Structure formats: C-alpha cells, structure tokens
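Bump. Still looking for HTH cro/C1-type domain-containing protein structure tokens.
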Amino acid sequence: MRIKGAIIRTARKQKRLSQVTLAAGICTQGTVSNIENKNVCDSLEILDAICKRLNLSLESVLDDNDEKKLTSLLNHVEELCNTFRHKEAYSLLKETSINVADFQNKELEVRWFYFMGITNLLGYDNTTDGLFYFYRADELGDSNSVYAILSVNSLGIVYEMANELDKAQIYYEKSIDMLKKMTVKMPIEATKIFFNTAKFYSLIKHYDTAYDLASQGMNLNRSYQSLYMLDLLAYETAFNDFMRSTEITRPDFSSAKVFATFNNNQNLLNVIENDEKTLTR
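Sorry for the wait, here they are.
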C-alpha cells in the first residue's frame, strides 16, 4: 500500500526516535526505512503498530483515498461489532461502493473478509456465509495477520454455535497457537481471541484454562494501557477463578462492575447481578 512516509519520518524525529527504536518489537529497521523513503508498506498490522507508537491515526498516513475510506469504514464497523451491533455493521459493509478486490493491500482484504464473516454469523446466524468469509480470510492472511487469526478463532464460534464442541476446540486452540507464533508485537485486537477462547473453555468446564486465557487478555490490555473489552475479560477472570477454586466463597466481580459501568454494558451488569445472587458456597 502507498504511504505518506514523510509524516512517519517527521513524527519519529519529533519524538527523537531512531528507525531502530521505532521498529523495536514491531518490524525491522529496513521496513521503517521503506515506509519513510519509498512510501510503501506491505503490512497493515505493522503500519498500525507504528502509527500507535507515534500517536498518529492510520488514516492520516495512507496515500490512497479509497484505501483511507475503506480503513475508516472498517474502523467504524469494528466499533459497532465491539458493542454487538452486528446487523448495523453488516449494513455498512453492504452499502459501500468500494470494491476491496481492486486493492493490492492484502491485509485490508483479510480484514474485510473477517468482518463480512462475523457480521453474517453473529448478526444473522448465517453460518454458510460466515464459513466462506472466514476461510477466505485465513487463506489470504499471513502469520502476522490478526484478522486472519480472528477468522480461525471465529471458525471455533461457528462450530460452538452448532454444538460441535470437539471441532470448535480445534479452531480455538489453533488461533491461540497462531498468536504465539506472531513475529510482531501482538496487537490489541488479539484481546477478542483470548476472550472468545476463555469463554469456550469456561463452557466446557476447563476453568483453569479459561482463567489463564482471560488473564492473558487483561495483560495484553495492560501492555497497551487500554480498556479494550476489559469489562468482559474481568468478568471471565472472576467467574472462572471462583469456579476453579473451592476456597473462594463468592466471586469478586468488583473490577468487572467498574469497567461494565464505564462502558455502559448493561447486559453484563445484569449477568453479574444474577451471578452474585446465585454463585455462593
């Protein structure tokens, strides 16, 4: 994809960072050099991580107008999906006149397929189209594509919804293994993978594994100083900690309630209220 490398270079120098320092934990110094001097970057994940380190918006450094529009659209779609408004997100995807197949940006295409899959699946229970889009995203993505990994994780959701739990577990485990093999800093979007997988292991009563996965999601948030899905992760951590330990008499949902109140997550607050009445020893 075409990049406005001068913006990256100026922001880096203003923060008095060398190319090596900027690249640390994200990519190679050569990749930063290509971005700044050749105005190209082959990975949206790498570019996004660099922008976050420099406090720049992704849209501000993209040179292609249609790519900027599509990136902005997908950012909006992601916000809607994070608040479980999947039908609204699907409508936005279907209404756009931008053809993702016209771009050379593979990661943007992977992200598009993932959101087409998840909005079909969770918005309309459309497993047929969901499977198609998730498999396409997995085929196109590379080992550092968080949206390809999210698509594999979502295959677990498909089979969980069909009550084929053995198949679901295969894909949940595969997605966690793929996260461990990433060679760039794990992006904050991986939080969804930890949450979805923790929730599944809680469902099948593997409470120690569920607790560990939810804790990893919280630690990822801490590394970004983020509140991304923290209310849901805090709930999973507290619930599974209670379920795995006979010494705990009541689950401690205090953190989950604080984050859920901050996020105005009334559904979770209702779940917590019910659990506090019923989960005692």
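The first helix runs from residue 5 to 14.

Edit: fixed formatting.
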